[in-house]
Write a structure and sequence with these properties.
single chain, 205 residues, alpha/beta, 6 helices
Length: 205
C-alpha cells in the first residue's frame, strides 16, 4: 500500500505577532499577510489530490482550511481536539508580562517543558495526550490517502516529533513559521518519513 501522506500546515500570521505572546485557545485574527499566506498554501496544494481536509476549530486555522477545502470540493472537518496547547491563565499575555507576573512558574516551565502544567491550562504532555489519538484516527480513516491538516505551532511540533521518534523536550528544536507546510508520509508498520519540514508555501510538495 502506498503511504498515507499528511500535509501539515500552520495557520498564517496573526494580529499581535510582533510580541511573543501565548494565544493558546483564544480566537485571534489573521493579519492581511496571514491571509495571503493562507492563499499561498492553498495554491501550493491546488494540484494535490486530497481526500480530506481537517482543521483546528479555531478561526485562524479554519480560514486556511476552508480555502484548501473549497479548491478541492471538500468540506472542512474541524475538531476541538486539534486546538493549540491550552495556556490557561497565561493566554493573551506576552512573555515579558508572564516573567513579571509568574516568575517562579515561568522558571518551572522552562525547567520541565514536558510536564509543567500552566495554571488553568495544559502541560505539553497533556496536549500530546489529547492530540495523538485524534491524529491516529484521522490517519486510520484514510489509509494510502492524502490529507491536509491546518493547525498550530504547538500541535504541529508534537506531530513532527512523533514522526521522527523524538521526545517532547525537543519541541522547540523544530521551527514552525506562520503559513508553513510540512509533509509526512506514514508507512506500513507505523514508521513515518518527514518529506518537508517548515517549508514555505511557494515550494512544490
Amino acid at each position: 500500500m502506498q503511504p498515507t501522506r499528511l500535509y501539515l500546515v500552520r495557520h498564517g500570521q496573526v494580529e499581535g505577532y510582533q510580541e511573543k505572546r501565548y494565544n493558546g485557545q483564544r480566537n485571534v485574527s489573521l493579519t492581511e499577510i496571514g491571509k495571503e499566506q493562507s492563499e499561498q498554501v492553498c495554491a501550493c496544494l491546488s494540484a494535490v489530490a486530497l481526500d480530506a481536509v481537517y482543521s483546528s476549530d479555531l478561526d485562524r486555522s479554519r480560514y486556511c482550511a476552508r480555502l484548501i477545502a473549497e479548491g478541492h470540493g471538500l468540506a472542512v472537518v474541524a475538531e476541538e481536539a486539534l486546538r493549540e496547547i491550552n495556556f490557561g491563565d497565561w493566554e493573551g499575555r506576552t512573555w515579558v508580562e508572564l516573567q513579571e507576573i509568574y516568575p517562579l512558574e515561568w522558571q518551572r516551565r522552562l525547567q520541565d517543558l514536558t510536564n509543567y502544567q500552566v495554571p488553568g491550562g495544559e502541560s505539553l504532555q497533556d496536549a500530546a495526550d489529547r492530540i495523538r489519538p485524534v491524529i491516529g484516527r484521522i490517519l486510520a480513516r484514510h489509509p494510502g490517502g492524502h490529507i491536509a491538516l491546518v493547525a498550530h505551532g504547538g500541535l504541529n511540533r508534537i506531530v513532527l516529533l512523533d514522526a521522527i521518534g523524538a521526545v517532547l523536550e525537543r519541541a522547540f528544536f523544530i521551527e514552525q513559521d506562520y503559513g508553513c507546510l510540512n509533509i509526512i508520509d506514514y508507512l506500513d508498520g507505523g514508521h513515518a518519513v518527514v518529506r518537508l519540514l517548515n517549508g514555505t508555501a511557494h515550494l512544490k510538495p
